[in-house]
Amino acid sequence: MFILSLIFWIVGLVLLGGGAWLMTLGGSWYYALAGVALIGVGVLMKPRLAAARGLYALFLIATAIWALWESGYDWWPLATRLGVFLLLAIPLFFVGKAGERHLGLKVLLPIWVVIGVGTLGSALVDAHKIKGELNTDVVAETPSIGDTPEGSWHAYGRNNLGQRFSPLTQITPENVDNLELAWQYQTGDLKGPDDVTETTYEATPLKVNNSLFLCTPHNWLIALDADSGEEQWVYKAKIPAESQRQHQTCRGVSYLPPSSGGPDTIDVKVADGPAEALESQQCDAQLFMPTSDARLLALDPETGARCSNFADNGELDLMHNMPFKQAGFYYSTSPPVVANGLVVVAGSVNDNYAVESPSGVIRAYDAKTGELVWNWDSGNPDETAPIGEDETYTTSSPNSWSVASADEELGLIYFPMGNRTPDQLGMYRSPAEEKYASSVVALSLETGQVEWVHQFVHHDLWDMDTPAQPTLVDLDTEQGKQPALVIPTKQGDVYVLNRQTGQAILPVSEKAAPQGTIEGDHASPTQPISSLTFRPPTLREADMWGATPFDQLMCRIQFRSLRYEGQYTPPSEQGTIVFPGNFGVFNWGSLAVDPKRQVMFGMPLYLAFTSTLVSKEGADLGETNQGEQGLNENAGASYAVEMKPFLSPLGVPCQQPPWGYVAGADLRTGEIVWKHKNGTVRDMSPLPLPFKMGVPGIGGPIITDGGVAFLAAAVDNYLRAYDLTSGEQLWQTRLPAGGQATPMTYLNSKGEQMVVLVAGGHGSIGTTIGDYVMAYKLKQ
């Protein structure tokens, strides 16, 4: 009994101390009062055991009422508030003499059973589900889906429209559970000991003729037989170690069809040796691969040899005319756009490493020769004629690191835009940089001149750069058919714009935003919001979470200690909660859109971050620049910045789940029709628990005309299929590594529909690292 009494004393003192601290910050009184009650139980156990049991019963009742008041009938918040205290009650059933136990249990046991069963019952209720069905009617009988042959996949989003929609119909909601592994291939490109933390495998393969083309994190380009997965050739770019700074990523390659014959007339040959050892040759069709040391390579898809007709023997140095040329500060992680005879390249500039960094310039080159045709620099937006050899682009201008889209009929190319580094310090930006940051910009394919720009965050201080490829689809609206552009943002909005004019099709409004920045900066008084939005509600202290009441208490203390007045609270030296975090509600995986039904499928996620400005005056910063997360120096600025997820001491998110969903919306009305929790904690916990909590992820979906959507992305190692109409999960298969890439689908030479996903893991979210390419088809 002494040990049990001591346990109640210790638990009570911890809650009382932490609760008193929380009260001084203006937080809940519950924890301090709970501490007093548990100390009281410990005091009463020896002299008056029945009274101790009675007091504990009252404590459980009060805790249950408080938990329901704060969180509603929701399993995960209730379980973590009540679970430990229900377990602590069990020893009280067995201590003391028989008569004392009987008397005490008459009161405590019924209360324990009611609260325990009631809590377990909440697991059967999904408090977060939006249930509904998307329109199944074909709105557009002859939608624009590009000119890619129906069994092929010629660009990152299948084609330059970025719809991630395949017209294939073999796989349906009725037969998708018959999918099985057809083949798998391992690239051999694995994370090395000297690699950066954020080595990520995000590639979506292309399918041309009967070959697949994909890249790896270390910029190997691989050709596989689309029927069997057998290797045809491999080209291994040599990347200097100093070029690996913030990311080691390749999302995909780009394809230029041959000038004569059909688009799928290439004849890929099986190589006898490494493709990089081949002599360069004149190329008709070409593959383009950007590298992490800021080059653009042009390769022959048939052999993997360099294309001698392009730039310098198949290699274009993207550091030309850069104002600063630090190794590893500029690179392209996304495939360029090939359109109207041009290969158009953008790039990523390292976040928060230095004020004086390379430019975010976007450049168009002749796809055959590599000659510069135009350059658009958001820091100098009006001068698009090719820059002179002795000139330089604008320092650190906003970049476009994600995937672009193009409408060749309109002659426009659309870029999602980032920020000028540093992300959290706005005093270094010019008016031009302010105008084009965190936006989507439409450029003329012919000249590079701006046709229109639509901004999603004003004076962005939160790294809310536009992360996703725009999707181009023709929408039937009350005003008639409109050429639309659909683009999701990190803050959770989905904008539907007229892609010819940039005007909003679904309404956009401005909302007041929090004020108060460090000296020398400012915050925009308002921020835009789309009528189609997946933004989460403003966080409350009651939303704080943890695996136990103890780390939940610490999360509440953090919540009250950090600055937070809702979304767009400016960064501060105190530390600011950024929610949604800079991981975003949506990221580079974008959306998938069915152009016939004019509906979308997406994966919104919700994970808060913290942002702390660190004054460098007299400070020893120690180790910096180890990736996007952690402490970054901002060389040349007065402040460094520390960005990290908002986590409890046990390393779980401080805000309660769900953290990840799948969702479907009607793009004509802007209605979110269904929204379901997605993913389990199987690969996040020491035990393989299959609890469907709704977990974070990164990656993208695809849709097929058969009515099935495919998505991996979540932090558990699964590829899943969903009914597009209802969002219900239809099928899943276990992956050997994290599936943080967007899948694709095609027809093999036998006319069978295949689904392919790269499973290689993602360093920044800690999923299993691997080097797998997995292919599935229906059982025969």
Which helices and strands, and how do they pair?
Elements: H1 2-24, H2 30-44, H3 49-71, H4 75-89, H5 98-121, E1 165-166, E2 179-186, E3 199-200, E4 206-208, E5 211-215, E6 220-225, E7 231-236, E8 248-249, E9 254-256, E10 286-290, E11 295-299, E12 315-317, E13 330-331, E14 337-339, E15 342-345, E16 348-349, E17 362-366, E18 372-376, E19 405-407, E20 412-416, H6 431-436, E21 439-444, E22 450-455, E23 471-477, E24 480-488, E25 494-498, E26 508-512, E27 526-530, H7 549-561, E28 576-578, E29 592-594, E30 599-602, E31 609-615, E32 630-632, E33 639-645, E34 661-666, E35 671-677, E36 702-704, E37 708-711, E38 718-723, E39 729-734, E40 744-747, E41 753-759, E42 772-778
Parallel strand pairs: 1-36, 3-8
Antiparallel strand pairs: 2-42, 4-5, 5-6, 6-7, 9-10, 10-11, 11-12, 13-16, 14-15, 15-17, 17-18, 19-20, 20-21, 21-22, 23-24, 24-25, 26-27, 28-31, 29-30, 30-34, 31-33, 32-33, 34-35, 36-37, 37-38, 38-39, 40-41, 41-42
Report on the architecture of this protein:
A hairpin with a 5-residue loop joins strand 17 and strand 18. By secondary structure, the protein is an alpha+beta fold. The longest helix is centred in the first third of the chain and has 24 residues, at 98-121. It has seven helices and 42 strands. Helix 3 packs antiparallel against helix 4 and helix 4 (75-89) runs antiparallel to helix 5. It is globular and about 95 Å long.
